[in-house]
């Protein structure tokens, strides 16, 4: 038998498998024990139990979450890989060879949209408003008026770099008012922040299994306006990341994936969707996340921490805090102390700002945030 050299922390005798720590990160997130338990069996991808019993209801359920008013206009296409794979699939499938994409960027994830488009050799223009400012709507409107070549616009819904909630409705009004196709990376917001893609006129929107729907990581999904997706045959720059082809396969096979499906992850996602429904749907989840974030900010500010963003720009998803200026402070030491108390936080990502981030999504409740604040108070070794 092979022996593994170093005993990892999860082999320690007192290790609590069920609850080693909660993840206060932007994903993967803490999941419920019942979601994790749903992983524990194998499924045949050829069988109706799986395709009709699990995949098809997930696709129908996602469309209903996306739009209460016109779900029949949309379809949900599940895609293997992490969320970025679905973003790349959406952009690569939606924008034709002679199209031009305008990217609104104000953080790491917005920049990634630009990088994906450029790598796919799509004619791309990036409007970067900097990490601390919302998109410049006047500039967007002027660009669409003055450049008829721009066919598509893409933006991030919740910019997870800072926790900034971008003004999706205002952006949508401009993009659709100018008759362009509108693509959204709603990875860290979908299922946690109410929206109606039909009312906003969104044509394509992406999220993944392990953000606000609280499944485990392993696939993403693109929700697309059927009439627009129907025009995308043959546009994709990749075989595996072809949303049109994946859609055609799922429609024809009643939920069958073209290539190996992450069956266990999909089954756990079905459980996560059920739990979202039982919680009271997106509105109730939004209320919980909002209360989580409210308690976080009140508690952290009481302990002397300062938020990176003004409160008005925050989403309930994740919050950036400045690292303390104290000479003895070291983020990794603070991080390790919190981890021993059962909480994992996240380093900052804002360029030029020395910060860290705390997520408030996942199977995390206001009482967890209260316990976190107690743990933070007890971990301020530098004070
Ligand atoms: C998490 C996230 C992604 C990337 O997801 P991966 O699963 O890491 O590929 C993309 N965009 C946003 C806004 C995110 O929050």
Short overview:
This protein is of the alpha/beta class and 383 residues long. 39% of the residues lie in helices and 16% in strands. The protein has 2 domains: 34-278, Type I PLP-dependent aspartate aminotransferase-like (Major domain) (Aspartate Aminotransferase, domain 2, 3-Layer(aba) Sandwich); 281-378, Aspartate Aminotransferase, domain 1 (Alpha-Beta Complex).
How would you summarize the topology of this molecule?
Blueprint: E1 22-23, H1 33-37, H2 48-66, E2 74-80, H3 83-94, E3 100-105, H4 108-119, E4 123-128, H5 137-146, E5 152-156, E6 158-159, E7 164-165, H6 168-177, E8 181-185, H7 197-200, E9 204-208, E10 219-225, H8 226-229, H9 243-252, H10 263-279, H11 281-302, E11 318-322, H12 331-340, E12 343-344, E13 346-347, E14 355-359, H13 366-378
The protein binds pyridoxal-5'-phosphate.
Residues 26-27, 82-84, 109, 156, 160, 185, 187-188, 208 line the site of pyridoxal-5'-phosphate.
Biggest β-sheet strands, sense, barrel: 7 strands, mixed
Task: List SSEs in N-to-C order.
Answer: EHHEHEHEHEEEHEHEEHHHHEHEEEH
Uncertain spans = 1-7
CATH superfamily of the largest domain: Type I PLP-dependent aspartate aminotransferase-like (Major domain)
Question: Which fold name corresponds to the CATH topology of the largest domain?
Answer: Aspartate Aminotransferase, domain 2
What proportion strand?
A: 15-25%
Helix proportion: 25-40%
CATH architecture of the largest domain: 3-Layer(aba) Sandwich
């Amino acid at each position: 038998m092979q022996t593994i050299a170093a005993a990892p922390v999860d082999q320690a005798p007192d290790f609590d498998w069920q609850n080693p720590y909660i993840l206060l990160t932007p994903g993967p997130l803490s999941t419920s024990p019942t979601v994790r338990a749903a992983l524990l069996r194998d499924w045949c991808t050829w069988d109706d139990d799986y395709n009709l019993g699990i995949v098809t209801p997930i696709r129908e359920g996602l469309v209903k979450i996306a739009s209460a008013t016109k779900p029949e206009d949309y379809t949900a296409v599940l895609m293997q890989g992490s969320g970025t794979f679905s973003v790349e699939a959406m952009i690569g499938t939606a924008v034709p060879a002679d199209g031009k994409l305008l990217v609104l960027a104000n953080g790491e994830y917005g920049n990634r949209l630009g990088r994906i488009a450029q790598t796919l050799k799509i004619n791309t223009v990036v409007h970067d408003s900097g990490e601390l400012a919302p998109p410049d709507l006047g500039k967007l409107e002027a660009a669409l008026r003055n450049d008829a070549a721009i066919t598509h616009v893409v933006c991030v819904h919740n910019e997870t770099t800072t926790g900034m909630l971008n003004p999706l409705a205002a952006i949508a009004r401009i993009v659709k008012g100018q008759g362009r196709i509108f693509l959204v990376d709603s990875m860290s917001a979908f299922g946690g922040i109410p929206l109606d893609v039909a009312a906003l006129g969104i044509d394509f929107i992406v999220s993944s299994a392990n953000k606000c729907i609280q499944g485990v990581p392993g696939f993403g999904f693109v929700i697309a306006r059927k009439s627009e997706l129907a025009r995308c045959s043959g546009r994709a720059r990749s075989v595996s990341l072809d949303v049109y082809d994946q859609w055609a396969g799922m429609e024809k096979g009643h939920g069958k994936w073209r290539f190996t499906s992450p069956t266990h992850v999909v089954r756990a996602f079905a459980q996560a969707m059920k739990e979202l429904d039982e919680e009271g749907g997106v509105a109730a989840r939004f209320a919980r996340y909002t209360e989580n974030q409210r308690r976080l900010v009140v508690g952290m500010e009481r302990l002397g921490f300062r938020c990176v963003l003004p409160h008005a720009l925050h989403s309930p998803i994740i919050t950036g805090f400045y690292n303390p200026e104290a000479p003895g402070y070291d983020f990794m030491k603070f991080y390790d102390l919190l981890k021993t108390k059962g909480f994992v936080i996240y380093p900052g990502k804002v360029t030029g700002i020395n910060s860290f981030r705390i997520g408030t999504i996942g199977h995390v409740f206001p009482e967890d945030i209260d316990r976190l604040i107690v743990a933070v108070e007890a971990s301020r070794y530098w004070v």
